[in-house]
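Protein Entry — a single chain follows
Next Lines — sequence and tokenised fold
***
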Amino acid sequence: MLSESLGLLSARGEQRRYRKGVLLIQEGDHGDTLFILLSGRVKAFSMDDRDREIVYGVYGPGEYLGEMSLDGGPRSASIITLEPTVCSVVTRHTLRQHIAERPEFAFELISRVIHRARLATHSARSLALLDVYGRVAQLLTDLAVTQPDGTRVILERLTHQEIASRVGCSREMVSRLLKDLDAGGHIAVSRTQIVLKRPLPARW
């Protein structure tokens, strides 16, 4: 859901459609465009020289990406579409015009940047202070959404590899942990979702 100000900015951009698997932003490149997601999902990630991937987040409609390069610096992460996606692509010039006409959007933009900086700090703290199980448990808990019947469900479709990329471990370790949690009655795993049946244990 777009805020009023973001909706007006989106209307000033160029609407583009992308197939699944299209790289919208390449880490390290320079660019002056902001991508506002109207539909679909994208993934922000980095990859090292050995093709090991770390995922920063998965984003859907109402989010916008690319703001970190609006200062003229290089892109800080790559963005790829996970499914057919529609974006409004806004240039830095258009964004400046929008802020000049609606100064309150500057505060919305700053709040979004601060929120993502806090998430990055949270992720760095987790990598430094938590073991692999702790990081997996924290990710599952953070993603779970409480349903009307009180159950907590992870609605996002996650493969074991995607979980591994988000927490910085091997796919095999994630598979082992989820199998143990499932066998212990803590979670229920299906092809479409993960249900947290009760609070996850503090240690594995």
